[in-house]
């Protein structure tokens, strides 16, 4: 599924793609939250909850909400990497199937550059693999794998921050480049309101092989938050956002209360310059110098590619 996130129509401008992706993700998140908000919020704050300002979050402020990045902010490592581990355990794919595409994606994530021809080929291939498969299949697999690999990797400190917003009567949303289906499973398990994620087009519950807009990454995350805030009647100056990555500076800059959580080097520098609050829940290691830990690079790519290949294999 990670592969789905990198297909973008060349004819569209980057801004138009970001807006489309943001609006699509916001719509999907609002629909999923209708079910999630019926569940009891039973998650308790973590032991290492931060010393928050007495006035924030503001109790009963219905114009405020919180937006949390997922990978390395709420969860240690990348959600798609853990998802891929679960699929590999179930023998849905073989390691050699990952090599070509994983290398292309890893190079883009680690070096920050991409070969347009190679990336377009990878995007087309990934979308063709999932075309014709049911969304429910991905959701079902995600439920099982959350229990196996993800539940124990939630940062207690970040979860405490999210719980503080919930306790104040505010909605809390995950905002991630991971597929919205996986993000929704994680949000529900954490007792959050819902999730904004990358949206792959589906008709009658079946993937069409197309992406709606672009992956929810960087500026697209900001557009998704902006769209959701408008639909929910939120005042962004009273909202909070949390992330570990400098790629999310556009989203963090939208809100009145930006937090850098387990920040990479660039985000830490930016946060200090603009006097944003920082929280670091990692122990015995520093942020990766390339800006993302290894699991979010090669691992996340392998996991996402694994998801697509697994669905393809089960189809046969």
Automatic annotation (TrEMBL):
Record has Mitochondrion as a keyword: no
Membrane among keywords: yes
Region annotation (Disordered) ranges: 29-54
Keywords linked to the UniProt accession: Hydrolase, Magnesium, Membrane, Metal-binding, Transmembrane, Transmembrane helix
InterPro entries documented for this protein: HAD-like_SerB, HAD-like_sf, HAD_hydro_SerB1, HAD_sf
Stretches that traverse the bilayer: 290-311
UniProt feature, compositional bias: Basic and acidic residues: 29-41
GO molecular function: hydrolase activity; metal ion binding
SUPFAM superfamilies noted in UniProt: HAD-like
Family listed: Belongs to the HAD-like hydrolase superfamily. SerB family.
Protein name, UniProt field: Hydrolase
């Amino acid at each position: 599924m990670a592969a789905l996130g990198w297909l973008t129509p060349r004819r569209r401008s980057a801004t138009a793609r970001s807006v489309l992706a943001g609006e699509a993700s916001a719509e999907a998140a609002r629909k999923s939250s209708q079910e999630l908000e019926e569940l009891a919020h039973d998650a308790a704050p973590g032991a290492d909850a931060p010393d928050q300002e007495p006035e924030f979050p503001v109790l009963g402020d219905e114009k405020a909400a919180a937006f949390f990045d997922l990978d390395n902010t709420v969860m240690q490592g990348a959600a798609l990497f853990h998802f891929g581990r679960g699929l590999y355990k179930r023998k849905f794919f073989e390691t050699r199937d990952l090599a070509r595409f994983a290398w292309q994606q890893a190079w883009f994530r680690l070096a920050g550059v991409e070969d347009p021809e190679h990336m377009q080929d990878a995007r087309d291939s990934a979308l063709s693999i999932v075309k014709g498969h049911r969304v429910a299949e991905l959701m079902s697999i995600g439920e099982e794998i959350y229990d196996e690999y993800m539940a124990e990797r939630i940062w207690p400190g970040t979860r405490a921050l999210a719980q503080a917003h919930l306790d104040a009567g505010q909605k809390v949303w995950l905002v991630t480049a991971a597929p919205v289906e996986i993000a929704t499973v994680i949000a529900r398990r954490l007792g959050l309101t819902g999730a904004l994620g990358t949206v792959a087009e589906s008709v009658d519950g079946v993937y069409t092989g197309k992406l709606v807009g672009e992956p929810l990454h960087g500026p697209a995350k900001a557009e998704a938050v902006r769209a959701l805030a408008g639909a929910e009647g939120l005042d962004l100056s009273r909202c909070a956002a949390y992330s570990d990555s400098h790629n999310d500076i556009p989203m963090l800059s939208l809100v009145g209360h930006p937090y850098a959580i387990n920040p990479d080097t660039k985000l830490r520098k930016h946060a200090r310059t603009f006097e944003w609050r920082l929280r670091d829940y990692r122990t015995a290691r520093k942020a990766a110098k390339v800006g993302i830990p290894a699991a979010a690079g090669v691992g996340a790519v392998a996991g996402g590619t694994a998801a697509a290949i697994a669905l393809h294999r089960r189809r046969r």
